[in-house]
Amino acid sequence: MLTKIESVKGIGPKKAELIHELGIYTFGDMLSHYPASYEDRSKLSPLAELKEGETYYVTGIVLKIIKNFAYGRQGKMIRLKIEDDTGQLDITFFNAGYYAGSFAEGQQYNFYGKITRGRSGLQMIHPEFEKSGPTFESAILPVYSTTKGVTQKDLRKIASAALARNFSINETLPEHIVRENKLCSREFALKNIHFPKDKKAFAAAKYRIIFEELFLMQTGLFIKGNARCREESGVAFPHDHYAEEFASSLGFEMTGAQKRVLHEIVLDMESAVPMQRLVQGDVGSGKTAVAAAALYKAAKNGRQGVMMAPTELLARQHYETFQEFFNGMGIRLGFLSSGVKAAQKRETLAAIADGSIDVIIGTHAVIQESVQFNKLGLVITDEQHRFGVDQRIKLAAKGADPDILVMTATPIPRTLAVIIFGDLDISVIDELPPGRMPVKTKAVSSRSRKKVYSFAADMIKQGRQVYAVAPLIADSESVEALSAESLYEKLRSEYPQLRAGLVHGGMKQAEKDAAMERFAAHETDILVATVVIEVGINVPNACVMIIENA
Questions:
Q1: What pLDDT, in 10s, does the model give residues 192-243?
Q2: How far from 118 is each of 88, 115, 129, 142, CA to CA, in Å?
Q3: Distance from first CA to last CA of the chain, Å, rounded?
């Protein structure tokens, strides 16, 4: 398995260097470089049955060769006319003077490629080919992800040599797991994932490899989870009623889902095992109120809490919301971001360090080395998918095993969430507060675009606001989709009475912030944007979101 690929005939130092770019140095690396797709050469198709647009494996005798045919400035072209018992087909190679001696009239060759229509009928352009043997050997050939200068033949040659080498491929799964799940052996799987004997063998190999990858991942998460469960060095908050006290001060009753999730958080906080919990809930489901209750419990017990948001606008919104939540409740708030002036920042840092601030809200600025907490007990990150795990760990490292709560509005199926956030327990707020209208989603064709924007204009007349989201910043020749810039100009032209704003990832942060602040202040009616607004701001007055070319 550790045999170097240079041992394969035809793979010299220069070729090997190119293959190394794929991370392939040894036979073992090659066997772990699974094919991206396959070419089914298990059946030869009669020439009379070929259809335009389909890919076929055919064989035929060369009737005629037009060699070294001048093709404008594109170099040389070779055209073959082949024939089998059912019909004829043109084979064309462009820029292929080097193929001049590869074919001979009267000889039979096999070709694999896609059928297109040329001036004289159906043709196959630049197919793979080999000379036919006395008997037909069926094959399903692997197609690997590759790089410039490395052909499929190169990689197939190495894979074939690796599998032909006389060494045993050790089993990696326990015998009872293989038996109980009716898995093929690892050796069988590797051979048939690279060069499937037939479709049945390929299916068995693919199932085995997928099973093994998920099994090992699940085992790793299980071990990691058990190790975390054995830790008992975290903050153990007292059994009290501070969370319930905060909830009763809201002026509205939490939903059943909010109460359930808050109860799970409180149990975690009161345990000596450090909390590591993900809270997922749609926009408007009440995640912020639940987070505020947790921060309140931490602060009332003499511990500091911190909440990190991915953008300054979102962080400021949270800060303003918490000011309302904690008004008159004795919780001292602070705000920190790169936009805070130097004098204010120094004052805030000093207050965090001496414990004068109970709860700090901020952006990535809260993980800077200059931020030193006095007694950090609770760390909250909002829109977790916008942060790296390292950032979360770096923030948590500012305290002595503080409790960690992460929040996201991105809908994540529970099983996928367990994989992505394998070190976290999962809570879901799956209920909207009373009075919140459910989101209605409707897909329409481009022919109904005017109706959609007329509806949006009517909503704006009623005092509401609208998001219009496009997939691209600017127009692209390679992608057929409406860009944000084009949509912005189009709306300004067709609906001059509407105040339109534009925001996208190509703008400077200050420009993006200004555009979103104008929208939040209702200085613009419709905000044309890319998905950069995903975690930008919360504008309750916006009642319509139009997603172009979804």
A1: 999 998 889 999 999 999 999 989 877 876 776 565 555 557 789 999 999 9
A2: 14, 10, 20, 29
A3: 46
Question: How many whole angstroms from its chain centre is CA 152?
Answer: 28
- Two tokens, residue 75: 């170099």
Distance CA 144, CA 33 (A): 8
Alpha helices, DSSP H only, in 165-286? 175-180, 186-194, 199-230, 242-248, 256-269
Name beta bridge partners: 60: 109
Angstrom distance (rounded) from CA 244 to CA 240: 9
H or E segment to which residue 152 belongs: helix 152-164
The burial of 19, by beta-carbon neighbours within 10 Å (0-12 exposed, 13-18 middle, 19 or more buried), is given as buried
Burial class of residue 489, CB neighbours in 10 A (0-12, 13-18, 19+):
middle
Task: Give me the sign of the Cα torsion angle 341, 344, 345, 346.
Answer: positive
pLDDT tens, position by position, 70-90: 554 445 788 899 999 999 999
Cβ atoms of residues 14 and 8 within 8 Å:
no
Tokens (6 digits) for 247: 């909830």
At CA 117, angle to CA 116 and CA 121, rounded to 5? 130
User: Reduced to 3 states, what is the DSSP secondary structure of residue 314?
Assistant: helix
For residues 46 and 61, what is the distance between their CA atoms, to the nearest angstrom? 13
Coil/strand/helix, residue 519: helix
CA distances from 498 to 205, 448, 465, 504 (A): 59, 20, 10, 19
* Rounded Cα distance, 418 and 425, in Å: 8
pTM score = 0.58
Instruction: Reduce the secondary structure of 331-376 to three states and give it as a string.
Output: CCEEEECCCCCHHHHHHHHHHHHHCCCCEEEECHHHHCCCCCCCCE
Question: Using DSSP, how many helices (H) and how many strands (E) does the chain show?
Answer: 16, 19
Q: Quick check: 363 and 382 in contact, CB under 8 A?
A: no
Q: Are strands 403-408 and 542-547 parallel, antiparallel or unpaired?
A: unpaired
Question: What does the alpha-carbon distance between residue 142 and residue 392 come to, in Å, rounded to a whole number?
Answer: 41
Q: How far apart are CA 196 and CA 206, in angstroms?
A: 10
Instruction: Outline where 421-528 has alpha helix (H).
Output: 449-461, 484-494, 509-520
Which 3 state secondary structure label does DSSP give 217? helix
Alpha carbons 102 and 16: distance in angstroms, whole number: 26
